[in-house]
Amino acid sequence: MRIIALATLVAVFLSSPAFAEGVSSEPKHPETQSWSWQGPFGTFDRTQLQRGYQVYKEVCAACHGMHLISFRNLAEEGGPEFTPAQAKAIATGIQVPGLDDKGEPIQRPATLADRFPSPFPNEKAAQAANNNALPPDLSVIIKARAHGIDAEGPDYVYSILMGYVDPPTDEPVLPGLNYNPYFAGHQIAMPAPLSSDGQVTWPEGNPPATKQQMAKDVVAFLTWASDPHMEARKSMGVKVMIFLVFLSVILFFAYKRQWKDIDH
Amino acid sequence: MAHGNYSYQPKNAFTKWLDSRLPIIRLMDETMLQFPTPKNLNFWFTFGGILAFMLVVQIISGVVLAMHYVPHEAMAFDSVERIMRDVNYGWLLRYIHSNGASMFFIAVYIHIFRGLYYGSYKAPREVLWLLGIVIYLLMMATGFLGYTLPWGQMSFWGATVITNFFSAIPWVGESVTQWLWGSFAVDNTTLQRFFSLHYLLPFVIAGVVVLHVWALHVPGNNNPLGIDVKGAADTVPFHPYYTIKDLFALVVFVLFFSYFIFFAPNFLGHADNYIPANRLVTPPHIVPEWYYLPLYAILRSVPDKLLGVVLMFGAIVVWAFLPWLDRSHVRSYRFRPVSRQLFYVLAVVIWLLGMLGAQTPDGNFEFYFGIVFPISKLFLSQICTLYYFLHFVVITPFVSTTEKALPVPESIGTAVLSKAGAAPAAAKG
Questions:
Q1: A168, A190, B90, B155: which sits with the fewest CB atoms below 10 Å from its CB?
Q2: Chain A residue with minimal CA distance to B419?
Q3: Range B304-312, long-range pairs (CB < 8 A, 24+ positions)
Q4: Chain B 233-272, CB below 8 Å of chain A: which residues?
Q5: In this predicted structure, what is the pLDDT of residue A23?
Q6: What angle do CA A46, A49, A53 make, to 5 degrees?
Q7: Which of A13, A147, A150 sits opposite B269 (nearest CB)?
Q8: Residue B106 confidence class, pLDDT cut points 50, 70, 90
């Protein structure tokens, strides 16, 4: 019966294997990149995260908030690891809403304890400024864009950033939208955020700020932001796995020894 | 199955005093240490212990998570993220708990199919089997309620879809659904009661597990041969023989579990659940957690909502009748050649239903490797659903009365001694 079932499956499989055909508005599969954090021993590149933060701050932050990230996180282990003084300087350079001594709303310099400010006072204002589209918060954008082990979300965001091309003639782009084949439906409200090389100026010693480099670095930064304890997680995981393998070997021999005089 | 002679003797004045008032040490000694257990149990029989461990893991990690989680529609999502970012080892707790649910279901499915294959549902273990089904139903409810709590898109829309099942009930459906919601839609009231119930149900499960273990200890363990224990030669004391075997299996299982916690913590989840719940945006494709997928496919296989819901619940309830639908005098499918093949067919059908449940309902069936079969998903899920019910309601009663069973060994002891020359069917499986 099992043989018959298998034979039927094989027969159906061989007789007419139709392959999936892409529907025209199906999003293109993201371009696979290699990332430093892939694999059980993967870690972030500190300078890449620092460059990525700068891209976020100077480009993305114009429209996208990251309300789950605090300035102190920038100096924490496993992240961009700015020095506490650098992180403090970054924070004080950014204005956040606060109250003065009389309770009047003011703008004040941020502290390490403050979250990244949102660029718009509320969702309605964000939509009004963006042709009715809401720029999503980027705190967990990498985790929210694909499951998978550690590359699908980064590949997707990278492909979106690099994927702006002229639309094909048979896909007219609606007013206020932009053509991007990696986006579901191919029409995205966000205009190409990385428009030219050298859009961001990095400190001496960093690679040239090409579009591709900026996209990779900001994706690295967003990946860390989605999962700030990734390095701690993987390093603990390696230790736990090694321990459990040893323990299971010992237990296996204990089990064999216990049962050696029993016929079973 | 009191084949072993229990020999608990209180050793000191305190245990003697306690033994004549609350013989709890005696109970532990007799049920967990000396308990005579068939000596031929294979590794498929270790999942009961693994499940007990997983229940404890889920309760402990869950209780700690509940200390930090905020069950409010405006704060739930961010509170889960705060746990993973700012609570010490919060990421570990949360990933243990979310992957632990999947591991719990992997273990329970193996446990159920082991019970099916070796005829563990048959007399005298029917009550044990029924209690197992109650536990499984409670697990389903608990898993669903827990998945709602992070209040992401799949949480919210999953809750909307599942609670809407109840609106299919004639006449009172709408009232029942609103009563469950505590509102006119899934909203903050719903989230708060789901949190409360998600905290409650695991303790109900623990209670039914006690009954399940009690019901196990009356007839004793089934075994791969499916024959009764004839005497002391067939058994070994649970401790140390099965404590060490179960412990070894448990550590291997935890190794598998740890891979997901540390290296693929979101692999078994859905990316959309990291998008905060938004009642104005319906995700293009709402899918439940993987462990509900076969049932989801059965639900969608019929166009009528009420019938779909009835079939879906029926697909679980039908397992409760199995002890009476199977008329065979032989328990283990090792000695039932036709039932054994049908067991694999059923497993394939349930796997196919699972695949169908994960796919969008329209179009042709997508097999692995991008291969699409020239058969519509709807038709295939109808065939599979039909076969699923036929397996239990028609095929099992028919086959169990007509199939010619292979000769069953005299006793566990003799089967074990003659194993060297035994047929492949009796090989350790």
A1: A168
A2: A264
A3: B305/B165, B305/B167, B305/B168, B306/B168, B306/B169, B306/B170, B308/B168, B309/B165, B309/B168, B311/B385, B311/B389, B312/B165
A4: 236, 240-241, 244-245, 247-248, 251-252, 254-255, 258-259, 261-267, 269-272
A5: 44
A6: 140
A7: A147
A8: very high
